[in-house]
Predict the structure.
Amino acid sequence: MSYLRHISTRRLLALVVGCALAVGVGAAAIALAAGGTGTTPPPKPLADAIHDALAAPQPAGVTARIDFTNHLVDAASLQGADPLLTGANGRLWASGDKLRLELQASDTGGGAGDVQVLLDGDRLTVIDPGANTVYRVALPKGAGKQSGQQANEPVPSVARIQQALRTLAQDATVSGAVPDNVAGRPAYSVRVSPRHDGGLLGGAELAWDAEHGVPLRAAVFASGNGSPVLELRATDISFGPVAAGDLTVPEPAGAKIVDLSPPAGGTAQKDQQPVTGLDAVQAKVPFKVVAPDQLVGLKRQGVRLIDHGGTPGALVTYGQGLGGIAVIQTAAEPGKNGTAGIPGGPSLPKISINGASGEELDTALGTVLRFQRGGVDYTVLGSVPPTAAEAAARAL
C-alpha cells in the first residue's frame, strides 16, 4: 500500500490518466463508482488535495469490501467466463507492499470459484480456481526498492504539483478535486479525459480518502458511455493492522502454472540504443517486415526492434495517440498456428484474414487481433473498433 501513498507526482498523474490499464491481469482494473451519501470534505484545489493525500500519515493496513464491475469484454462471446470477466463482489486486504483482492464467484463467498489476486512487492499472482490455473507476473525489477526510496523523499510541493497538472492539461481535461463520499468516508475525486487522439477511451476517474490518502475507487470509461466499463470501488472500509494470513492464500493443488512475465533478457539490454527504422530492423529479423507507409489512412510513425521471448521482432506504429494502431510481427513458433489464445484462459473468437486463421478480442476500449501468414505471427492492436483493426490486418 505504501507504493500508492508515496508515489511520485508524475506517476500519480499517470495513474489518474491510465487508472486501470495496468495491471495487466485484472489487478490493473481498478475502477470508480458514483459517490455515496454522507459527510464530504471541504472544497479544496486539486493540487492541495493531492499534496495532502501524499503527506497524510500512512495507516497500518486496509480491510475493505469491494464491488468489481467489468463491461470491458462481452463475456457471452468467450468460453470459460469467471469473476474476472463478469465482475463480482469481494474483499480486499492491504498492508505495506502486500495486497490481496478476492473476487467471489457467488454472493455467499468462499466458493471454489473465487478468484484471488495477490501482490507481494514485485510479484503479481492471479489464482483462477475455475480454470485451475495460476498466472504469475514479475513486475519490473527494483519496483519495490524504488517505492521504499520514495517513502523517504519529501512530499512534492503544491507548486510542483500544480506545474505537473498544467503539463497534463495540455493533453487532457482535468476536473478539480470534487468533494465526495465513498464507502462512508469523506473523499475527493478527479476525472481526466483525453483532449484528442483518445481512441475509444472516454476518461478515467479516481477517488481517495480525504484523511488517509488511500485510493477508494477508480473507473475507466469508454467514449460516449456514461457508465464505467471497468470499476472497482470500496463499499465498506476500515483502517488498522491486517493479519498476515489475510494477505496470502494457497495455490490449488495440481493447478496449471502460467508465467506471463517479460523475458529476463530484455532488462539486460535496456541501456543499449534502440534499433529503429525499417532498414535497420529488417537487418535484425529473420523474416520480411511488412510496413507500408500508410495503413487504413494512418501514416506510419516508426519501426522498432523488439525482443519476443529472446527472439527479435518488429513493432510498427501508425497514427497518433490512443487512436493509433500498432502491428507486432514475430517469427511463428513451429507447430503453432497463431491462435493459441491466452494460456489457460478462455478461447477467443476466431476470424479469417485474407484466408489466414486468426483470433480477435473485441473490448469496449480497443481491439486485439492475431493471425499467422507465411511463417510470421501478426498482432494488430489499438484503441479502435474491430472493423478498423480488421481492415488494417487485411491491408498488411
The chain has a mean pLDDT of 81.
